[in-house]
Amino acid sequence: MARITALTSGGASAEGGGPTDGGASARGRALRRLALVMGYACVAIGLYHVLLGNAAIPGEAGAGATIDSLGRFFGAIFAGYGLAWLWAARQSPIPATAVRWLAGVFLLGAAGLLLSLAVHGWPHWFQMALTVVELALPPVFFWLAGTGRPRSGAGRPRV
Prior knowledge:
Radius of gyration: 19 Å
Structural class: mainly alpha
Mean pLDDT: 83
Number of helices: 5
Distance between the termini: 14 Å
């Protein structure tokens, strides 16, 4: 019974995956909307890089064939990452574990940009603006997705 209560009240799932309540609460609706925006933005940015290659990278239009190929490849990967966000946002309930993994990958991207900053110095100003977004959004997703753990006593038989 505790598992059913946890699921219907917006708590963690019986599997421990921790979905939100599927959009019934304000937090669930915010998560769904933000995940959709994230998904569409990533797909658009990814396709932009696939189509424009080096021209999509601020200040690097003449970087050469190797960087152009790499940028287009990672653009396709980023578009796929956006599709994963769209998949998660369209589930009911939204799988909090997937949201946390996707947000964690985004945070890892920010860590990579910070590492590049430490090793090579300041990039184009637009990259720094993106780094701020990449550092700010994951904690929001983590909060919106909740802890994802069954409530204390949930799933344990009472003796």
